[in-house]
Amino acid sequence: MDVKEKLRKAKLFDNFSHFDVHRWSSYPEVKVATDQLYVHLKTNNKFKGNTQIQKKHLRVLLLDLFANWLTDPKKYIAIYRGNDFYDILLKEGYIQMYTGYFKPENEDGSKKTRIKVTSKLINFLVKTHQLSQHMIERAPNEECIILRGIKERKINTKTGKPRKTKTSEQIDYTKDKKYDNYIPLINKMRKNVYAYNNLLRRTLIDIPHIPKEGIPTRSKKRKIHIDLTKKFVARIFNNNSFQEGGRYFGGFWQRLSSKWRKRIRINDHKVVEIDYSGIHIVMLYAKKGIDYWSDIKTDPYHIKELEQSERMRDLLKVVLLSSINAENRAKTKQAIQHEINWDKDLYRWSLSKKLDLNDILDKFVSTHAPIKEYFFSGKGIELQHADSRIAEMVVNHCTRHHIPVLCIHDSFVIEQKHKELLQNIMNKSFDVVLKEFLTTGGIATSKLKIEEYNQPKQESVRRVLKIGNAKPIPQDIINQLNQITSEKRTVIWKPKMKMFIDFDKRNVEDDDYDNLLRKKDNEYTLRKKLHHKIEWERNYYKNSYKDYMKEV
């Protein structure tokens, strides 16, 4: 096998997800399929162990393999070896396997074993036993309040020199007495999140006309496949503290761009997305007694000395998040560079321009001089806790009124008919949490941004178009163009050449999608039909809606 073929295979194996042990289903079709396959495997192979435990493990494994296949047929699952089922399923032709390997702690490059379904297993599940997506559920006892801590371990760099690195690990707070005082709060939060998950489970959250090749990202070259069954969310706290972090994670909609989130349908209805504009900047200014939107009024990502464009604005968002989360300037630069390197296609322009990160940081901090003490301070995790409290109030209010809302940290997606309600609760929640967050008694104004699919986004696009014999653009022409202040920029012509232009461009991709929506989507129609077959009153998450309403 040549080097190119090895690299190609290695790339295929990088398309994977970790084995989800919380997959479950109480549908009789799934139980019958599991029992039948178990009997077949045990008849043809010798293995020992508790039958009930083995059947349970097999059911979870089949569901995760099936869910991954529905999401992306080429996707692998990363597993730990040690279970007889894997080798037996491989032997019987039900799975493909790529054997992983382990290297000692002082070496890099350990890799888990990868598995995925074969056509034989898919035929068994779909054709023989009529399994479908709506039968894939979550385990009733899955924890939704998670606490993570920091663990230090030694690894080797490429130079072979040992160094320390911090890794996140989940903390079992139920066995640590120092968290006893938090138990009443944890129980309340858990009940609220269970109720929220129960509502999401009963809600159709889908997208018509999902491309089979994957949903495009802003990187263009990178596409994502979404698992529509992933509607279970959990609140994750950080640094061994229930006062840090606390954001909601888990919903498939969190992986989508704002453009694709606008295409979501909740119970087959169009949606609207509303988010807080520059919420962390606003909070930090409020700490200094400054109401940002009343006193400053400008876009927080508008830096006079830097390029004025959407791409630079996106980069400055990374700069902000990195600078308030990192503990020092060096780690801030490292975090920004990591983001650029991770998505080189999206940030290719910055690489070609060889941007000076030090210069960008200096100008960003200078622009926001009133809050410079919060940069490179590691305060970001406290801000995340504040916006998670806002999200908690929004989510709990909507859940109490039985209105599904999708949380993306500081933005929310809801049916269009509930737009005004969401705006009101977002503003009220911001005011309440800000009073908790501020110790000085300062105030701040919230500014909401609304995005709806039926209102195509207008964006300013700056391009260089050349016709005929291309020549360098004279500086006087460029100066003239820079002086044009109208919203609709004029087009300047010269013989044999179309010059530098600025104009407003309609998002034509939305127009294309409008045309696509007029076509029948059989898969979306089927998913809607199957969704209505769900037994609505089954209580998977301990607290039913009626119980929740009694106690909240």
Strand content: 15-25%
Cα distance, first to last residue? 63 Å
**Unreliable stretches covering 5 or more consecutive residues:** 457-470, 485-508
Radius of gyration: 26 Å
- Count the DSSP helices: 19
Largest sheet: 4 strands, mixed
Strand order of the largest sheet: 1-3-5-4
What is the averaged pLDDT score? Answer: 81
Give a written overview of the molecule:
The structure is a single chain. The chain has three domains: 3-138, no CATH class; 145-279 and 381-455 and 520-551, no CATH class; 458-506, no CATH class. The protein is built from 19 helices and 22 strands. α10 (310-325) crosses α11 (329-342) and α14 packs across α15 (419-437). The chain is α+β, with helices and mostly antiparallel strands. The strands form eight sheets. Strands 1-3-5-4 form a four-stranded mixed β-sheet. The protein has a four-stranded mixed β-sheet with strand order 8-7-12-13. A four-stranded antiparallel β-sheet has the order 16-17-15-18, covered by helices on one side. It is 41% helix and 17% strand.
